[in-house]
Amino acid sequence: MIPTYTVRQFKDTFISTKTKKQPFDDKVLQTVKNIMEDIRTRGDEALQEYTEKFDGYSGDKWEVTKEERKAAWKEVSPEVIESLERAAANIKSFHSKQLQQSRIMEMTDDIISGQLYRPIERAGIYVPGGKASYPSTVLMNAIPANLAGVQEIIMVTPVRGGDSIPPVLSVAADIAGVNKIYKLGGSQAVAALAYGTDKIPSVDKIVGPGNAYVAAAKSLVFGDVGIDMIAGPSEVAIIADETANSTFIAADLIAQAEHDERARSFLFTTSKELIDETLVELEKQCSELPRKDIAEVSLTNEGAIVLVDSVEEAFALVNALAPEHLEIQVENALQHLSKVKNAGSVFIGHYTPEAVGDYFAGPNHVLPTVGTARFSSGLSVDDFVKKTTYLYYSEKALRNAAPYVETLATKEELDGHARAVKVRLEL
Ligand SMILES: NC(=O)c1ccc[n+]([C@@H]2O[C@H](COP(=O)([O-])OP(=O)(O)OC[C@H]3O[C@@H](n4cnc5c(N)ncnc54)[C@H](O)[C@@H]3O)[C@@H](O)[C@H]2O)c1
Ligand SMILES: N[C@H](CO)Cc1c[nH]c[nH+]1
Ligand SMILES: [Zn+2]
């Protein structure tokens, strides 16, 4: 089911800029442009129409009430609540170490300079809900926002049939400190968060993963509000040698593939035997999978297995690919970490499946996809803070700087700038 590629074929198909996957196509972009324009002009009326059309919810009571949020706790099992709480504690512990303080860069009698760290005031978090619901994504989005000190965290997620969101999402939102939840999804929800409507407050930044419509909407609102990233289909790349276990490898490829037909699962290995065993395991494990149909389409259309000459060759391919997730399942895996140049998040050794990071361990699972790990990072506390620099100069300090400022201002033919220094020193 999953095709095998030579190194050259893999490069041409998945790494070449000519064939590189885009998070969304022109048709999706045009659809989203129309929806967003409609939300901006007609507000809640349009929001209601699109929510009915795409999510089947015709009501206009989008906010999940306090009573509904309280009632949700009775509908979720104690095991799920305990797992969410334990995961939340790990995520909180990991992300709290990302926090930075405002700091002074220079302090003399005549010059003080530094940087203030301030949280953004209102963050919108998108939690996908079309094909599956993701309480783990609620934790991953909201906990860093909360730690950063965001005053109001507003979550949107579409209903999946019926007129309410899954209770587990509401419980996760309580655990993570979400202030408001709206039953809205897709590009209409992103537009409402970006521009506000009578019922939906506008936010300063929108974060979180979603499908192509959500990604297109985020790309369009960027500039009017902040965004974390434009996420494409999820990916895992696994580097394995002959010490790897084909049952583990197949399970990890399937774990990514079951997310979405467009998800991408790649194996780079030095072992021909491992390839043969993995192919057999994939057939076996897929046949028992509830989301078999999605996983099989994903593996067949978007997956790849590549036989490489060496682990070094595999790292070269992976660094060019810059995958969202990288698993290193080779002998002495930890020793290879320094070879990673481009990847969203790395899982090291035979007993660190991506799944433990997706749910529980602490690092964030909202990560850069389709090669963007070359220049960007996963969601973190940094996404929810702004850095404002500041400067104090005494008269003496300005006098020392004046000749240089005036020279540069004159060179740029900005006389007004030179004068702003001169007038202070001529008094
Ligand atoms: N990177 C991560 O951290 C992470 C985590 C969880 C999920 N994901 C990914 O997020 C994605 C979730 O996608 P999803 O579809 O399940 O949920 P979603 O909530 O992102 O999208 C559902 C919404 O898409 C809109 N939509 C659907 N069809 C449309 C159409 N024809 N025209 C206009 N709008 C339309 C609807 O408004 C609907 O509410 C998957 O690709 C999944 O792999 C990523
Ligand atoms: N693997 C997803 C990110 O690519 C995150 C996730 C959520 N739930 C399960 N997995
Ligand atoms: Zn996952």
UniProtKB/TrEMBL annotation:
<feature type="binding site">
    <location>
        <position position="256"/>
    </location>
    <ligand>
        <name>substrate</name>
    </ligand>
</feature>
<feature type="binding site">
    <location>
        <position position="325"/>
    </location>
    <ligand>
        <name>substrate</name>
    </ligand>
</feature>
<feature type="binding site">
    <location>
        <position position="259"/>
    </location>
    <ligand>
        <name>substrate</name>
    </ligand>
</feature>
<feature type="binding site">
    <location>
        <position position="417"/>
    </location>
    <ligand>
        <name>substrate</name>
    </ligand>
</feature>
<feature type="binding site">
    <location>
        <position position="256"/>
    </location>
    <ligand>
        <name>Zn(2+)</name>
    </ligand>
</feature>
<feature type="binding site">
    <location>
        <position position="126"/>
    </location>
    <ligand>
        <name>NAD(+)</name>
    </ligand>
</feature>
<feature type="binding site">
    <location>
        <position position="188"/>
    </location>
    <ligand>
        <name>NAD(+)</name>
    </ligand>
</feature>
<feature type="binding site">
    <location>
        <position position="358"/>
    </location>
    <ligand>
        <name>substrate</name>
    </ligand>
</feature>
<dbReference type="InterPro" id="IPR016161">
    <property type="entry name" value="Ald_DH/histidinol_DH"/>
</dbReference>
<keyword id="KW-0560">Oxidoreductase</keyword>
<keyword id="KW-0479">Metal-binding</keyword>
<dbReference type="InterPro" id="IPR001692">
    <property type="entry name" value="Histidinol_DH_CS"/>
</dbReference>
<feature type="binding site">
    <location>
        <position position="234"/>
    </location>
    <ligand>
        <name>substrate</name>
    </ligand>
</feature>
<dbReference type="InterPro" id="IPR022695">
    <property type="entry name" value="Histidinol_DH_monofunct"/>
</dbReference>
<feature type="binding site">
    <location>
        <position position="211"/>
    </location>
    <ligand>
        <name>NAD(+)</name>
    </ligand>
</feature>
<comment type="pathway">
    <text>Amino-acid biosynthesis; L-histidine biosynthesis; L-histidine from 5-phospho-alpha-D-ribose 1-diphosphate: step 9/9.</text>
</comment>
<keyword id="KW-0862">Zinc</keyword>
<keyword id="KW-0028">Amino-acid biosynthesis</keyword>
<dbReference type="Pfam" id="PF00815">
    <property type="entry name" value="Histidinol_dh"/>
</dbReference>
<feature type="binding site">
    <location>
        <position position="358"/>
    </location>
    <ligand>
        <name>Zn(2+)</name>
    </ligand>
</feature>
<comment type="similarity">
    <text>Belongs to the histidinol dehydrogenase family.</text>
</comment>
<feature type="active site" description="Proton acceptor">
    <location>
        <position position="324"/>
    </location>
</feature>
<dbReference type="InterPro" id="IPR012131">
    <property type="entry name" value="Hstdl_DH"/>
</dbReference>
<protein>
    <recommendedName>
        <fullName>Histidinol dehydrogenase</fullName>
        <ecNumber>1.1.1.23</ecNumber>
    </recommendedName>
</protein>
<feature type="binding site">
    <location>
        <position position="417"/>
    </location>
    <ligand>
        <name>Zn(2+)</name>
    </ligand>
</feature>
<keyword id="KW-0368">Histidine biosynthesis</keyword>
<feature type="binding site">
    <location>
        <position position="412"/>
    </location>
    <ligand>
        <name>substrate</name>
    </ligand>
</feature>
<comment type="function">
    <text>Catalyzes the sequential NAD-dependent oxidations of L-histidinol to L-histidinaldehyde and then to L-histidine.</text>
</comment>
<feature type="active site" description="Proton acceptor">
    <location>
        <position position="325"/>
    </location>
</feature>
<feature type="binding site">
    <location>
        <position position="259"/>
    </location>
    <ligand>
        <name>Zn(2+)</name>
    </ligand>
</feature>
<keyword id="KW-0520">NAD</keyword>
